[in-house]
User: What shape does this take?
Amino acid sequence: MDLVWISLISGIIGAIAAGYFARYILRQPEGTERIKELSGAIREGAMAFIRREYRTEIIVVIIVAVILGILGLATPDLGWKASVSFIFGAICSLGAGLIGMNVSTRSNGRTTAAVQKSLNQGLRVAFRSGAVMGLTVVSIGLVGLSIIYFAFHNDPNFLVTIPAYATGASLVALFARLGGGIFTKGADAGSDLVGKVEAGIPEDDPRNAGVIADFVGDNVGDVCGVGADLFESYVEANIAAITLSGLAVGIGIVTNAQTAWYLPLLISAGGIIASVIGSFMVRVGEKAEIAALSRALRNATWVSAILSAVFSFIIISLLGVNLGIFWALLAGLIVGVIIGEATNYYTSADFKPTREIAEAATIGGGATMVRGFAVGMLSNWPAVIATAVAIIIAFKFGGFYGVAIAAAGMLSTLGVTLACDSYGPVADNAGGIATMAGLPAEIRKKTDALDSVGNTTKATAKGFAIASAVMNALGLILSYGLAVGLVKVTQGQIMAAPELSLLSAPVIVGVILGALMPAVFVALAMKSVGVTAGLIVEEVRRQWREITGLREGTAKAQYSKCVDICTKAALKEMLAPSIMTIIAPVVVGVILGKYALGGFLVGSLAVGFVLANTLNNAGGAWDNAKKYIEDGNLGGKGSNAHKAAVVGDTTGDPMKDAAGPSLNIMLKLMAVVSLLLAPVLTNFPGLLG
Amino acid sequence: MDLVWISLISGIIGAIAAGYFARYILRQPEGTERIKELSGAIREGAMAFIRREYRTEIIVVIIVAVILGILGLATPDLGWKASVSFIFGAICSLGAGLIGMNVSTRSNGRTTAAVQKSLNQGLRVAFRSGAVMGLTVVSIGLVGLSIIYFAFHNDPNFLVTIPAYATGASLVALFARLGGGIFTKGADAGSDLVGKVEAGIPEDDPRNAGVIADFVGDNVGDVCGVGADLFESYVEANIAAITLSGLAVGIGIVTNAQTAWYLPLLISAGGIIASVIGSFMVRVGEKAEIAALSRALRNATWVSAILSAVFSFIIISLLGVNLGIFWALLAGLIVGVIIGEATNYYTSADFKPTREIAEAATIGGGATMVRGFAVGMLSNWPAVIATAVAIIIAFKFGGFYGVAIAAAGMLSTLGVTLACDSYGPVADNAGGIATMAGLPAEIRKKTDALDSVGNTTKATAKGFAIASAVMNALGLILSYGLAVGLVKVTQGQIMAAPELSLLSAPVIVGVILGALMPAVFVALAMKSVGVTAGLIVEEVRRQWREITGLREGTAKAQYSKCVDICTKAALKEMLAPSIMTIIAPVVVGVILGKYALGGFLVGSLAVGFVLANTLNNAGGAWDNAKKYIEDGNLGGKGSNAHKAAVVGDTTGDPMKDAAGPSLNIMLKLMAVVSLLLAPVLTNFPGLLG
Assistant: This one.
């Protein structure tokens, strides 16, 4: 029997579990009319955005598919297969995002309603909503991979066709993360800022026309965007390992390519089962408080990780793969955990770095900024050193193939990791709905408590997303190197082309140009958020001025107008950085040649890694420093320290939720585009080469 | 005749010209008693700092010299020669800094006095002070190099001994830039901030005890620090070319190593003559206004550059060097100019980027920060692309040697470039003295005008410093690669060791770890400025509280206390990042081996380049956006926009004047330490290698 049937079946089991959780949620009461109305408005806005975003994406997907088809005409049969694989990858990612968001926007109001019964009831609805997203992403990912495998694995061009599946997923992910990020932070900053420009319009108030757009943003950015990001990482880890199979055979890790293909897919299959078990473990007594759920989430993650490691060990043994590869896998798993913990240390107000930012806020805005940046920059060290150690271990035990397996190991328990992450925005929305619906303060207190657990899991997941993106991008870069002939395996040794020497003009120039990419990408993304926020400020002020009765609360704000403005702005603004990301590797490869492109990818990886950590962690620390002050420390809300901390938070928001996370996808997308370009570049020296 | 006599003589000619300018300055009247008193206080503070800084530096220099001597014992004769060369390099740099600062602190008050006569008179004193610094740096640099050449060039270990000279200069430069940067920005931020914390203490007021420390900082940071930075670049460009001489012979650029040694030294000699001619050209009519001087400075720079190019062409022809190398040189010269202009575009309020930051300030602090960062990040593109093009050209026409010659070309006119730069802090000081001495508003207006020309030249020089540091660090990295045997020349072709493949674990891990260095370095430097500023705030408030009569202006502030605090804090805080910079390449080389170290240097170069540009240009743009608003735009001084802009400026200050410029030196120092380590690493595989 072809062992990939096991992967397919595991994927289906994951989907059944997701369906079970979804059914549970839909059976819960929807709450009062007001809650239903608000939840409905959010849902409507989110779906309106998704419809338009998907329309834009589908157009771009079709254009790229046609280009792929034409480029592939040179090789008989290749073109249409790559196109099909690419379109299928895009559809899978779009589908996973749609299902996840559909459930999250049906869960927010139900969570608010459930909290009115008991905190525990609210927790369960919110977490199960996250679990639907988590399990849907891994199930669709693995089922899709299995289908592509069955369709094409007997084709001689299999190793060229399958990366196209990842490229489809990557393109969708970039749009989802970047478009969603610009939407959510534009709406957030806009509806916050308006209160400062036009006195008397409070945040989270039904009279603020931007407020529904803000809640919509949580769904399209933090649920749909994050899901697409990690969907991409998930499938790419598998694909990188598959494309490196020849090398794994060459250096004697496995006896044949078929086994090297099985390994990642079976590790992922084991991970899904582990994630399902972990998700069902999240149960607490009826009277449990927040600390108990926090522990329950943590336990679920740990149990899944340990189970996944055990399953993987068994799979490696049964397949007769060199046992060393288990260490590579374990290195990946452990690094994911370390980076998550480090992120938490540098961004939580429970620890010194964020406390110091809060103290700097008592001096002023400038001091807050300087200290926050220092924290963000410094926070790189655990992530970078842990990743470096993992790479050394993975290489030692499995060469290039080991790096891809380390990434697969890290991502094997994605089902449960993503569940913990996607729980956050649902809890956040539930709190917003409680305020808007004018529910009593004690309910709002409970939703705040739910939200605070969500913030920790969100921070951890962000670190995890960066680490997995880096490991994956590296796996793909190595796949590119192998595909384009920069390295060859001769007599069990990996031999590099001397032209790939680090100290040659094309490689050095490539590295330097690669370093430029993340900087320009971040600049464009940050500017986009500013532009979108400016439009929202204008619109909210216009409604405040023109709608009679809005000020007094007797007339309603036109929420959909703001959603509409954010949608248009986000879709427009995401185009320039997206196109740049797709075009840049093509331009570098064609003009400077394949060696320069190798340097380009490594250069952007190094800078992107450091920048993504810096932006995420500085942003997270500023956010929590502000909350720390709002909790009554150092003068509390309204003090000068609070004002300074707000500046930090406003600066950090587009960094941590739009620019930073999109960098993850930029790195992966550039690598996978290069891999796809490999057949063209192999025998082409470059215009200046 | 040994042609290096020409270099020695040119260096002496430069020194004579510097002496002529110094004599001119010292003959100018010192001004009123009050001016003399203030200038004296600045001078005293600066000298007190320099004494202590030099004491610390000398201790570190001796320790490193002893280590070098011991490491060199393995090779007969090598140890003591490397130590001597190292100490000599350190002494030359210390001497150049001391002379420059001595003159600048004697010129500030004289400039104030001269301005009382005429604007033109003030301009002349300030520029000639800068010219003393510029010409002293290049003269001592070239004379020192010539002496080292005569002493050791017949020694078989010459190519190992001479980099030690650069290492000495580099170590001193790091202390000068970093210590000076922490001093100046700590004092500046501290004396600004105090007014916000304790109402009623204005900036630039004699009752603010931190104000003299602020002026002292301009001298120790912007004169001494910048001078040491560029002194290092200057000698390193020459040394990189010399150490790459074997390669130049191998690929047929020159017929023998001797010629390859002559070339950079003679290009530098021609550059000094060109700079002297350029400096004497800075003359304007008695009634000239600011625009005329701005033009005069620009003309001087251009004439020097063109003369230097012509001299270089003649030298290349006469030496019988492959004429292609001239294009490498020209590429370096032109890139220096392009980057200077780009820096000016992105940081001057005459252009769109800075104006947009000012407009964002009308929305609030957060918007100012986001827009400023976007500008800083985006500003990388012209610098990075110009450098990439220059590297391609330099490689094409001269291989590794071409890169070093491009750097030498870029730096050949340093005498006049640095003169224009060092003019800035003198003008700045002169303005401060005018205010403190209570001179009439029209005088302050004239000094402000002087200052504004200085700001432009300072911005241009900063871009130039980064570009030259990157080219130089690259030259040194290539020297390291050659010295350690990563590349070999066989039959006219440069052949790389396959282990140096970009896609190998040590190289990739090296690149990623290298990327970490600038981030951590910046974090430490920024935090240091914050710590120092905090101490100043405390001290100024203490004096305000405890000295009776200070508030009313009848008692004097104890300026020297603040100078003392800054001195101690700067010297203490600079140690951690400095030691990290020296130790890191040693640790990476010893643990991970020579290939990883190659990757490490390239990774830190790429990230450092992008970060240095970002920090410098974001900082410069924020500064000028604030000044633009203070000039009466968008609400003017005291408006909400101004408050937001002040936050940007306070954040940008430590970035652009402490952390950013110190990165230049970090990159060069790590490269030259690695080069010095080459003999040890050549046959050592690394503990994990």
Observations:
- The beta strands of chain B are 487-490, 493-496.
- Chain B has 20 helices and two strands.
